[in-house]
Structure formats: C-alpha cells, structure tokens
Amino acid sequence: MPDNVKIDVHHITRVEGHGNIKVDVKNGELVECRLEIVEAPRFFEAMIKGRTYKEASLITSRICGICSAGHVLASLAATEDAFNIKISEQEKLLRCLLNTGQHFESHVLHIYFLAIPDFVGAKSVLPLVNTHKDVVVQAIKLKKLGHEIGDMIGGRLIHPTATNVKAMTMVPEPGVLEEIIVRLEDAKQELKSSIPLLKSLKLPDYERETEYISLYKKGEYTFLEGDIYSSDSGEISRKDYLDVTNEYLCDHSTAKRTKHKRESYMVGALARFNNNSQWLSPDAKQTAVDLGLKAPCYNSYLNTVAQFVELVHLADEGIKAASALLNKDVKLEDDSFPLKAGQGVGAVEVPRGILFHDYTYDDKGILQRSNCIIPTGQNFQNIENDFRKLVPEIIDKSQDEIRLLLEMMVRAYDPCISCSAHILDIEFINSRSTTV
Amino acid sequence: MAKPKVAFFDFASCEGCQLSAIDLAPEQMLDLLNVVDIVEFREAISEKAAKYDIALIEGSITRDCDVPRLQDIRNRSKVLVAFGACAHTGGINALKNFQKKEDYQKAVYPTDPLKYETTVTRAISEVVQVDAFIPGCPINTMEFVRIVKNLVLGKRPDIPDYSVCVECKKNENICVYEKGMHCLGPVIRAGCDAKCPSNGGYCYGCRGTVTKPNLHAQKDVMQKYNLTFDQMTDQFKLFLQRNREVFKNAG
User: Fold this and answer.
1) CATH code of residue B27
2) How many Å apart are CA A43 and CA A56, to the nearest integer?
3) Coil, strand, or helix at residue A217?
4) Which residue in A49, A158, A249 is closest to B20 by CB distance?
C-alpha cells in the first residue's frame, strides 16, 4: 500500500540551469507531479529585434554556453534561408566539424560527469577522482577534445568567433585537420575501452512509448540538414515547424512547452536514434549492438546510452569531414551576398534535440521578428509524463530511492534549462509519512 | 592548512563561463583540485557547503527575487568574484534595458506578458559588494586559473588594463578598420589575445572598457574611417548598457 509521499527538490544539481521537482502522493493517489522551471527569463527574441543579420548568431549564441555552437549553426541557417544563400561544400564540412566538437564536449560531459556518478552512488565526479581516476582522466581528455575541435574550427567552441553568415572568417591549416583526424581516431579507441563501463551501469527498468521527433534526411544520420520527422506522422517540412511545436505557457515554468500529436514528445539522442539509427556509421551501429540498444527504444533513461553511440558516429563523421577538407584547397571564401527582405527557418540537431530559429529581416538586413524553439523546452512535458508513469511504479521504494530515480530521469534528458529559460532544482519537502 | 573552499553560482546567464572554467587538461584540473576544494557547483556536482573562501558568481540580476539569494551568498563568502561578462558588466542580458519592459515582455510572452517577474538587468556589483572580477564572454580559461591562483595567494588579480589593440598588433593583424568594419578594440580591456579580430571578426566589447577609456581617440579613429559615432554607440549596446560613462560620453 503506498504511503503519502512528498518530494520537493529545489534546484536539481548536475543539470544545466535551475529547476525544481515536486511530487505529492496522498493516500496512494498522485496529486501533484511536476518539473518547475525557475530560471530567470532573458527575453532573447526581443533583444535581437533591431539588430543586424551579422549580430544575430553572435547574440543568440549567448542563449546557452553548452549549446552555443548549435545556436550559431541554427541562427546562420535561418539567416541564410531568409536571404536565399547557398553555402559551399567547404563551409558544410567546416560546420560539420564544429558540430562534432560541440556534441563531443556536451555528450562526454553529460555521460561521464553528470550521469555516471548516480550509478556508482557518488554525489558527483569529484569522489571518482580518487576511486576511478583512469576513467575521470579519460573523460576529461575526451571532453577537452570536443572543446579543442570547436576552438580549432570555430575560433572558440563556446561563443565561436570565426562563424559567419555564408562563410567562416577563418579556415584551418592542413596540419590542424590532420591533428583532428589522429585525435578522433584515438578517441574512438578510448570510447571502445569505455564500453564495459557503460555496460556495467544498471539502467532503471522502465518503458513509456512516446512520439519521437528529430531532423531527418534520407540516407544520413543528420544533424545540420533536412526536414522534421515524427515517429507518429512521418516527414514534415522544416518551414512548418510551428505545426509541430505548438508552444504554450505553463503555470509552473518560465520555459514554454510544446506538443504535437500527443500530450508531449521527446527530442534528443534517443529520438534521433529511434528515427535515424539505420544511417549510423558501421562502428556506431556495432557500439549500439554491444550496448544492447535497439530502435525503437522506449526507455527514456537510455538517452544517455544513445548519446554514447552518437559519440562513435560523430567521431567517424568528423574524420570523414576533415579528410574531405584535406583533399580540397581550403581557403577563405567570399561572404558577400545581396540583402533582401525575407523570412527564414533554421533547424539543426543540438546535443539535446532539434532546435529551431526563425528570423524575419527587412531589406536592410535588420531583424524584425524572431522565434527560437529550444529542445529542452520541447522535452519538459515529456519528462513530466515520464514522472507520472514512473512514480506509481516505484512508489514502494524508499523516499531516497524515489528521489534519485526522478533526478536520474531528469538528468537522462540532459536538460539545458539555461536554453529553455534557464534552471532546474529538486527538493523533498516533507519526510515520508508512514500513516495512510 | 585547509584548502580554500571555492564555490560557483549562477544567475541569469548561459553558464558558458562555468563550462569554460572546466575546459582544462586532466593534469591542470587535478592540479587545481589539489589547491582548492570545489564545495558547490550546481551545474557539475551535488555537494553543498555553508561558507566559502571564494564565491564565483556567473550571471546578472534580472529579478528582485534573486537579490536575497545573492546577498546570502555574499554574507557567507570571504571573497566574491563577478565571473564573466553577465556578472561583471551586465553582459548581453542588459541589451533588453534599451527597450521598454512592456515591449519585450509582450514580444516573448504575447499571451501573458506579466506572467514572469523581470526587472532592469544589473551587474553583480550594482547589488552587492564585489571584490574581484574575471571579464569576458565567455571568460578565458587560463585567465581564470591565473586569477584564482592570485586570490588563493591573497594577491591582487592580475588582469591587463590596456586595450585589445595591443594584443591585436602583437598578433600582426591587419587593423579591422582597414577592412571597413568598426571595432571597439581601442577602448576595450585586453586579455583575450584579441581573439575575435584575430579570427576575422571585430571586437564588440565583451570584456568591458579599460579603466580610463579614451572615447575621444575612438571617435577620431571612427572619423578617419568615415564611420559615425552612432555606429560605435550601437556597438557598445551589446555588452555595455550598464556602463554609464560610455553612454554619457557617447550620447
């Protein structure tokens, strides 16, 4: 018989941003179960109004530190769509490398530093420095590799300095590209050696099928190009993204939420894996097999495993892009184009899922209107729906165990609350009562 | 001697400075952990502590409800550091201060503009006493390590007080003005190795002005290249809305 359980986690830790988890069970009935987003709203869409096309990505990059390169890539795509600019093959390859750097840093940080401590009963990565030093050192190296690829290609991974509408303002020397290839090959070996560790993690046994939404380009495990795909309704044009996201405000959150065909949908590594896994690189496919991850997978906790599989794929993609650039005469490209009034939509996959930027410019290239829809905002309602399914299943566990499983669920989504508004915070209000 | 207790906190920000702080090689990170105890860092660890020797504050203050939290951290900290542009100058968050509150609230939350509390964006030093700052958007990782070392040793933080142009010239760049773009390098604090101009961009002032910015000299440069003072003022808006001196002189 379930007890009365009240959980109130104020500012959940090891996530990006500020949020709270609130759960209240009375007489075995789930009366309240929610994820509160208490991040201070920052009004980016208003702030960029009146600024020039050159500044759009520079400003929106600051929405989020960990996804800054992704915001830049979405922003550039939206601006280029508005002005009808086609980017060159060289530019595509450079952006692919920047994307590899970004995902590497972000996924490694999440898997090793934010998620794994829960599985070994540690409060953070800090105690692991003494107990699992080799793993920590390996993780720091892999994370730093992502950061450095971002620095080498984008000038800087966090708030890139070389990214620009139409063409980057800096290009890598051949030696840099060779170094990236060697280091990504090494990283693949390191990842391989981590497979036993990943396999040893006891992921909670849980399933809830939901709608999975990601970018989609036939034949490619795509991050930067293509249209939208829903596991419920198939392909949707990028231009019709508003039909997918249907943003709404929610009382307990400064972040807007979204819904498509059902009450909620999921974006991120697991959604990409479920929709596009047939196009992963052969080694990434093998890694999925080794880790027992099969599409479709309905266990949200396995988002972390999907991220690991993606690391292998991204390393392969990065090696491919750097090799292709080595075979080209890489040089600074012309970044001029005629201005015109227009609207454009950019859709890219960032580590936490599909991200949309939508800009309207006047004929002088000044922003009139903008809309940014962030992956974590798209996931909030789905996390809450996972809570609703999960809480009754685990209600007989101790309060500490329930709390940990809820926190782990939130962390599995690798939420980025700064992006979506900005924070997540969890706290148990009362101790568990034994009377019913 | 006990290791100094260091804590990270964030208010309205992108948390990119915290991420930049941990962009260290394994040996650098382990060295740092040998000299300081990271006791709070919500983004990365779950541990908490009651008092701090050094509190690093990322983000600006954009809501009254955040003020007591900041004051509480101040009361429990020996040294409080404004960490990164949002904390140091108000940063990009202060760009909204150029608009009417009703306008930006309506633009972002059209169906319910008054739903969420928001005030004028302020830098940390406008709310509590700040003992040191680490500039930049984001901070420069090596500068962060150096300043933490200075603070642990009880020294004054070693931050350049000369302009970005010095570093830009050292990097042998063609002046951004020669390329027909405008640049705030002449009055902005160096220490970033002139990263933006060196990578084909221009300086937009994320590190704040030097202590005595020569705005007249900047004006002369602008005139020489046929650029208007308005264009420069507009450029200052991105990161320096809270810098009254700039806007008084520029206006």
Assistant:
1) 3.40.50.700
2) 14
3) strand
4) A158
Is B65 in the same domain as B138?
yes
Among residues B152, B185, B205, the one where a domain terminates is B152
SS3 call for A89: helix
Residue type, A216: Y
Same domain as B227, residue B146: no
Quote the minimal CA–CA distance from B25 to chain A in Å. 7
**Mean confidence (pLDDT) of chain A:** 90
Q: Indicate whether B112 belongs to any domain.
A: yes
Structure tokens at B125: 């030093």
Does this model's pTM top 0.90?
Answer: yes
Both B142 and B53 in one domain: the answer is: yes
Is residue B145 located within the same domain as residue B174?
no
Q: Between B11, B30, B111, which is nearest A249 by CB?
A: B111
Q: If DSSP codes are grouped into helix, strand and coil, which group holds residue A32?
A: strand
**A125 interface with B at CB cutoff 8 Å:** yes
**Residue indicated by tokens 């906190």:** B9
Give tens-digit pLDDT for A397-414: 988 898 889 989 988 998
- CB-CB contact of A162 with A58 (8 Å): no
| Residue-wise pLDDT tens digits, A277-329 | 999 999 999 999 999 999 999 999 999 999 999 999 999 999 999 999 999 99
Q: Which residue has the higher pLDDT, A120 or B194?
A: B194
Query: What are A390-396's contacts with CB under 8 Å, separation 24+?
Result: A390/A206, A390/A208, A391/A23, A391/A25, A391/A30, A391/A33, A392/A2, A392/A30, A393/A206, A395/A2, A395/A3, A395/A5, A395/A25, A395/A28, A396/A2
Mean pLDDT score, B118-132: 96
Domain-embedded: residue B158: no
DSSP 8-class letter at A132? S
Q: How high is the pLDDT of residue A418?
A: 52
CB A420 within 8 A of CB A66: no
Domain span at residue B188? 164-250
Distance CA A56, CA A49 (A): 9
Q: B201–A123: do the CB atoms touch at under 8 Å?
A: no
Report the number of distinct structural domains present in chain B.
2
Nearest residue in chain B measured CA to CA from A248: B111
Are B52 and B90 in a shared domain? yes
Q: Give A225-244 pLDDT, tens digit per residue.
A: 999 999 999 999 999 999 99
Q: What is the distance between the alpha carbons of residues B11 and A280, in angstroms, rounded to a whole number?
A: 39
Which site among B3, B8, B23 would you substitute to test the A interface, given the most A Cβ atoms closer than 10 Å to its Cβ? B23
Of A189, A223, A376, A202, which is closest to residue A292 (Cα–Cα)? A202
Q: From the CA of A393, how many Å to the nearest CA of chain B?
A: 26
Q: Which residues on B lie below 8 Å from A108 (Cβ)? A: none
Q: Cα(A222)–Cα(B56) distance, rounded to whole angstroms?
A: 38
CB A333, CB A90: distance < 8 Å? yes
For residue B15, what are the contacts with CB-CB under 8 A and spacing of at least 6?
A16, A17, A64, A65, A66, A418, B43, B58
Residues of chain A with Cβ-Cβ distance to B43 below 8 Å are: 13-16
Name which of B16, B23, B46 is nearest A68 (Cβ-Cβ): B16
Q: Which of residues 344-383 of A touch B (CB under 8 A)?
A: none
**Given an 8 Å threshold on Cβ–Cβ distance, is A59 in contact with B238?**
yes
B186 and B105, same structural domain? no
Please say which residue of B123, B152, B181 terminates a domain.
Answer: B152
